[in-house]
Every structure is written in structure tokens, then in C-alpha cells.
Design a protein that fits this description.
Shape: globular
Distance between the termini: 85 Å
Oligomer: single chain
Order of helices and strands: HHEEEHEEEEEHHH
Number of domains: 2
CATH topology of the largest domain: Alpha-D-Glucose-1,6-Bisphosphate, Chain A, domain 4
Largest sheet: 6 strands, antiparallel
CATH architecture of the largest domain: 2-Layer Sandwich
Structural class: alpha+beta
Helix content: 25-40%
Radius of gyration: 28 Å
CATH class of the largest domain: Alpha Beta
């Protein structure tokens, strides 16, 4: 019985091919095609996030940068930087950020930031953490010394809240393997996003002082 059914199917297929030359036998996919469709994801280049990407001072994570402002006095740098930091505290993704303290006489500004750090966002998934840090700017003739420290996170607050400091979560000691050639899986996304965010902050200030 099986042989009769098989023969019938073969005859039917041959008949379809004879009536319509659009039908043909499918060809086997090449190794390259299979790799393109089903191969593993492209490796992420984490070289910029490895040893030294998260600087420390006396065991504390501290990001520092001296941002040049050629031809401007300390007062002028201060007058440019203050509204910029106030604007940054109101940007999308900010929660309770503010310029907390200022000193027009010494040209210093202190700001606290609480913002959302988003790892993944889609119709079904929202993976994010609250990200906290403080920023201090000391303005001088031709430059601003900007320091960012006291970095910490509040993760999964709606399910199982986890509070972590940068020192215990994204430092070289905690976020890299022993050979310092790879990021540790659990904290990798925090380290990448934090390094990128710090770069964004410094870039925004740099643009404001041009």
C-alpha cells in the first residue's frame, strides 16, 4: 500500500512539473547560507570596556575630566555650564535630578542625578535600572574640572530590589575575569552602559563650553 501511495505522489509531482515549469526540486543550502541564517551572533567588541575603563581613586570609582574652554574666564565658564547642567537634569529619562548647590564666587557647581539606564526595551521587555551619581564642576580660566562619583544602581525594584555600588559591581576587580580579557556576564551590561553614559555626559559639557 505504501509503495502505491509513493508511486502516486511521484507521478503527481512529475505531472505538475510537466504542466508548470515553475516547479523545481529545491537545492541544498550552502554552508555559508546556513551560517548567515542560523549561525551564532556576531561577537561584541568589548575592548573599550576592559581594564581601566572604570577609573578608581583610593578604591572608589571616580570619573574625571578637564574640559577646555579656550579664551573664557572662570565666570564665563560657570555661566555656560550652570544652565547646561540644569538642562541635563531635565532631559528625557531623568527621575529626580537637579543642580543641588552652586558657588558663584568660587565658580563651583554640584549636581545630583537619578536617571533611568535602559538595557533593553521592546513591546514585551523593559530591562532597566535606576542610576545615581553626583557631579562636581570647578570652573577656572579656560577650563572646567568635572568629577563624577558616588555611582550606584537600584535594579529590579518591582520584583527583587538589588542595590549595588559601582565599586562592588562594575569595578575592574568585580566586572572582569582573572585575566582581565573578558567582562563578567552578570555585570557586563552595567559596565558598558555606565562607561558610555559617562562619555555622553562629558561630551555634552564639552559641547556647551566650545
Amino acid at each position: 500500500m505504501k509503495q502505491i501511495i509513493l508511486a502516486t505522489l511521484l507521478l503527481a509531482t512529475a505531472g505538475m512539473q510537466a504542466q508548470d515549469n515553475r516547479w523545481s526540486k529545491p537545492q541544498e543550502a550552502t554552508a555559508q547560507q546556513r551560517q548567515a541564517l542560523f549561525g551564532s551572533k556576531e561577537k561584541v567588541d568589548d575592548s573599550k570596556y576592559l581594564a581601566g575603563a572604570v577609573p578608581e581613586e583610593n578604591g572608589k570609582v571616580v570619573f574625571r575630566r578637564t574640559i577646555k574652554a579656550p579664551g573664557k574666564t572662570a565666570a564665563q565658564v560657570y555661566e555656560l555650564l550652570l544652565p547646561k547642567l540644569q538642562q541635563m537634569a531635565r532631559e528625557e529619562g531623568q527621575v529626580k535630578s537637579e543642580v543641588a548647590i552652586v558657588s558663584p564666587t568660587t565658580h563651583e557647581i554640584g549636581a545630583t542625578f537619578e536617571e533611568w539606564m535602559v538595557f533593553k526595551k521592546s513591546a514585551l521587555v523593559l530591562d532597566r535600572t535606576r542610576f545615581y551619581y553626583t557631579l562636581h564642576a570647578k570652573c577656572s580660566d579656560g577650563a572646567a574640572d568635572v568629577t563624577i562619583n558616588r555611582l550606584r544602581y537600584l535594579y529590579e525594584e518591582e520584583r527583587a530590589p538589588q542595590k549595588m555600588t559601582a565599586e562592588e559591581w562594575i569595578s575592574d576587580r568585580e566586572a572582569l575575569n582573572k585575566k582581565q580579557t573578558k567582562l563578567v556576564k552578570l555585570s557586563a551590561k552595567f559596565r558598558r552602559k555606565t562607561v558610555d553614559r559617562m562619555e555622553e555626559v562629558f561630551n555634552e559639557i564639552t559641547d556647551a563650553l566650545k
